[in-house]
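User: Hi! Is it possible to get a structure for several chains at once, not just one? Here's what I have:
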Amino acid sequence: MPTIKDVAKALNLSITTVSRALDGYDDVADSTRELVIKTAHKMGYTPNRAARQLRRQQTDTIGYILPTEKPQFADPFYSEFIAGLGDTAAASNFDLIVSAAPPDSSAEKALYERWVQGRKVDGIIINRTRLLDWRVQYLAERETPFVSLERSQLPVEFIGVETETNQGMIELISYLANQGHSRIAYIGASPDLKIEYDRHLGYQVGLQEAQITSDPSLTIRANLTPEGGYQAVRQLLALANAPTAIVCVNDLTAIGAMHAAHESGLKVGRDIAIAGFDGIADSAHTQPPLTTLDQPVYEIASRLVTMLLSLIKGDLLSERQVKIQPKLLIRPSTGG
Amino acid sequence: MPTIKDVAKALNLSITTVSRALDGYDDVADSTRELVIKTAHKMGYTPNRAARQLRRQQTDTIGYILPTEKPQFADPFYSEFIAGLGDTAAASNFDLIVSAAPPDSSAEKALYERWVQGRKVDGIIINRTRLLDWRVQYLAERETPFVSLERSQLPVEFIGVETETNQGMIELISYLANQGHSRIAYIGASPDLKIEYDRHLGYQVGLQEAQITSDPSLTIRANLTPEGGYQAVRQLLALANAPTAIVCVNDLTAIGAMHAAHESGLKVGRDIAIAGFDGIADSAHTQPPLTTLDQPVYEIASRLVTMLLSLIKGDLLSERQVKIQPKLLIRPSTGG
DNA sequence: AATATTTCCCAAAACGTTTTGGAGAATATT
DNA sequence: AATATTCTCCAAAACGTTTTGGGAAATATT
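Assistant: Yes, the chains can be modeled jointly so their relative placement is included. Here is the combined structure:
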């Protein structure tokens, strides 16, 4: 594997000149630059990343840690999200390093420390942000560039992307109300998650706009998985006064919810309405197809990377806080 | 951020000794080693990865490239797969870098070159192996350690994990035959993929064992997505002599297939039987729940990393070729 | 008491870059 | 013709480790 020294020797130039020719400095003659570029290419020279990183004190790498729950972890949201991160990073010649850890665990903490202290990454992408997320505190204190999907409640400047949920929820619930539903339940997630906070709030605002009085017994917390949604619906259907429509915090929950409804002999879309949130690809092919608030996951991921990279480079970011409007996709799971 | 030099100065030792104390060499007194470890920890010292990499000429990093298809890419298989890769790598203090590129594209080639030539990774994980996969040729030629999920047909030693499909397919098809099905279709994927080769072969062997003569018009190729499965079933149902059972190359295809069947007014599990392959988490919650050949994705990923790491370290690998038996999960989508 | 061995430590080189601070040659300006 | 300016180039230092090849002191062996 040729080094810069080999290229220099082959051309009888100093390594300084080769380096500067390759990096586009203007204190090297055009003729030599061309020559350098050509022979470097011919010799198959690629700069050694470690050496460059050591000297430059930066890594050209960004990090992302998957929020894996204990046993199994399979959410199509994340494969699309990671594809977006990886693609966009690669387009700027950055690398993406990925690891996995349960949220708010010691393993998570250890990973962040390893990456931040060891100067393993130039910046970090956070998602599934929690209301009082130690990660944003930690990264802000250490002045490590980071962007997040969803805003925490900590007094730290928020840079990233957030989904504006209220409008979409209002649309969804008004649609359900127009279909004649008045007992509309909500299946949420852990209350320390910002998405749960937002989506539950959106649900309540939606009810209010539709002039439906909120019934606390119709809000129930699950864990973002099909299993969670399945169990939650079994509870809801056991209620004396069971709901006729159910809004779920994400599509996976809705998939489990539909399963439980079917199992109880209800025809989803006729006997009960069920809606999700995320717009994962599967949602178009569930039986019946799922009404959902669709988010452009790939673009969100891509946008986050773009923002993070300019943060790292010290460019001034015109838009530090991007708001995304989810799009209501009405499908047969809510009748109509 | 303290360096090894700071630690050495604080203890009035040489950096050599500090380095060797930390690395566990036995030519340093136990008392000093303890002292070094303690103060290094107290000072918050973490070795700089770039410097270590440069000196050691290795990166403690493995790479994986997602096979993203053009528009959207969301397959829960991959979120679980990546979680397994990341977890297991992190447990050995290795990092996982992830990027994305369409299979067999110039972008894919560019990424591999960047990683291999630039010594960015110590080893690579391959999946969705193709029959004549340029990647295995390339990596073998460059003597870059790699492991793959599924074996190519190239004359290169195979190291990795493969799924033994025939047995599972025989079970599945014999089950279908016992249910009275004799027109059993197969929806596959691109024929250059090893999984397509294997699973299609398994299907044919299964038919043979069940003494059903194979009808070529019942094999149809899709693209591993729900959309593909959906379109394929529309074609199949338009046949003069339509199938009564359909075996799909993966669960996503099966999900789309069920959708199309429903849409044609067929009740899946009663009027038509549909089965998938992979055992993604959703498959338990489709309507009806999907019969599938379940693979332990997380364990497969984890196993691949373990193998790759010993390959990198030069340990002798006792098992270079691991065979996995998928497990048939019979669910209502095939009636019964 | 001399020699051999073990124990514990260290100075210096090396890994492959980028950057600093010029220096000589060519050209432009007086 | 002398001086100033611009063009090109380069030697050397630095980034933070690990490893090599000892070397001095302490201990064991004759």
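Chain A has three domains: 4-47, 61-163+298-325, 165-295+328-334. Residues 3-5, 15-16, 19-20, 23, 47-48, 50-56 of chain A lie near DNA strand C (CB under 10 Å from a C1').

User: Great, thank you!
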